Amino acid sequence: MIRLSGLDAAFLAMESPTTHLHIMGVLILDPTDVPGGLTYPRIRRLIADRVPLVPPFRQRLVDMAFGLQHPVLVDDPEFDLDAHVRRHSIPSPGGRAELDALVADVASRPLDRHRPLWEIHVVEDLEHGRVAVVAKVHHAIIDGLAGAEVLGAFLDLTPDSGPRPLFSAERPPRRSNAASQQGSTGDSDVQDRPATPGWSPASLPGEMEQIRSALGAIPGQVEAVGRSLATTFQAVLARSERNHEHRSTSSPSPFDAPTTSFNRAISARRRVATVDLPLGDLRRVGESLGGTINDVVLAVVAGALRDLLASRDEEPETSLVAMVPVSVRTQDEGDRLGNRVTGTLVSLATGVIDPATRLQQIRVSAGVAKEQARTSGGEVLAAWADAVAPGVANQFARLLSGLRVFDHVRPPCNVVVSNVPGPDVPLYLAGARLVSVHPVGPIAEGVGLNITVFTYADTVHIGVNGCWDLVPDIATLATSFERALADLVAASARKARKVPWWHAELPA
């Protein structure tokens, strides 16, 4: 029995009928070189064989009595692989638009809390004979970096190699060679549950055990509130001193973001769009104009959002603000699941016309946000997540949703932008080459747009998740990323020729 940390439990408690806090990854596979093709039974067998490598994939939640203590993960005695692995076919021509629509439908449905919190959807009939694997995992189990590691349990470095080492301290014994070989030959569907020799699920905790645990947590909750207040006071004081010393580079404050048409109460339905950008272009922009890959990604997002607001005849009085998750994992925590992340606020300088100048302002704001994240280390967020009882947090989330609070107040930020670095070498699943990985992050009340980036090989893969009602033009927004990057590339070229941006249309 493993008790969730406060931050992990917060992603459960803050769910509501409109806010689904799961993370998704859309993997496109090329089966051209797979003998016999990449069939659904073959993928299902691989998943059955690899699930034991990720212990939470066989564990379900048990809520504590009265909602006073964080839930626990326990072995699911009724684990059934078929409840988690599903098969889909999409209409012709099976292109990006058709797949994005299916992903949006999957994203619109919450995970079943009576089962382990994950699903894998196998999608066939894609164009060019390709196959998609759509993974969906609750944020309570993984953050962005941990999600990338979980993918490593199912992906291989070569078409015929086994999985890379993953979570070695927690990994249960591997199957015997005979069992592994039996699960990797033939195309008949295997109905047995994935089981590791020696693994037998423990019984679920009874009602009295839950009540004792909940009541015993009350003194600790009171103490946690005191620690949270002290930690918050220290963080606010440090921030005030830092902003006083560097007034021109202070970072945005929560709820100071302008209200836009996508910053309102959200519905339960989602729209999803995906786009790919060449990593080489982003690197050249960063080298020429100055800035990290993450800075350039934020500048691309800023340019695309400027286009979106212009198409809606909106011009906010102040710059849009992005919430950028930052990992606070230490090297010792690199092989642990769960969440080790804090949120930073970065100005997107959307009021600046010149792309190069906008990038530099974003670079400064992001630098300040990173410094604050290093000094606080996510301690405030984690402290309050530990202190607030899950039952209270859940009722608060439902109240926000039911009253449509963010139709009347400013949002905490305008958009969530997350950038997760991926491997720079090709990967394979069941022998098929991984072509692309598009991440899809969650949205929340008041913030109806999430942009998540995953770098794989030489490409930056972007997944855009938006509220069905608030972002009907999500496909147009995705196209704007390409135009925003082109503007930055052109600005790099003008700098090399020493041509000012307002002379962009003049010959060199």
Query: Structural class from helices and strands?
Result: alpha+beta
The rough form would be described as globular
**H and E string:** EHEHEEEHEEHHHHEHHEEHHHEEEEEH
Poorly predicted sequence stretches spanning 5 or more consecutive residues: 165-195
**Main sheet: strands, sense, barrel:** 6 strands, mixed
Tally of helical runs: 13
| Name of the level-1 CATH class of the largest domain | Alpha Beta
CATH architecture of the largest domain: 2-Layer Sandwich
Mean pLDDT: 81
The CATH superfamily of the largest domain appears as Nonribosomal peptide synthetase, condensation domain
- Number of structurally distinct domains: 2
Q: What share of the residues does DSSP label as strand, in percent?
A: 15-25%
- From the N-terminal CA to the C-terminal CA, the straight-line distance is 68 Å
Under CATH, the topology of the largest domain can be stated as Chloramphenicol Acetyltransferase
The strand count comes to: 15
Helix content: 25-40%
The strand line-up of the biggest sheet is 5-6-7-2-13-12
Radius of gyration: 23 Å
Short summary:
This protein is an alpha+beta fold and 508 residues long.
Could you please describe the fold and organization of this structure?
- With 508 residues, the protein is of the alpha+beta class.
- It contains 13 helices and 15 strands.
- The strands form three sheets. It has a six-stranded mixed sheet with strand order 5-6-7-2-13-12, with helices on both faces.
- Helix 8 crosses helix 13.
- It is globular, with a radius of gyration of 23 Å.
- About 6% of the residues have low confidence.
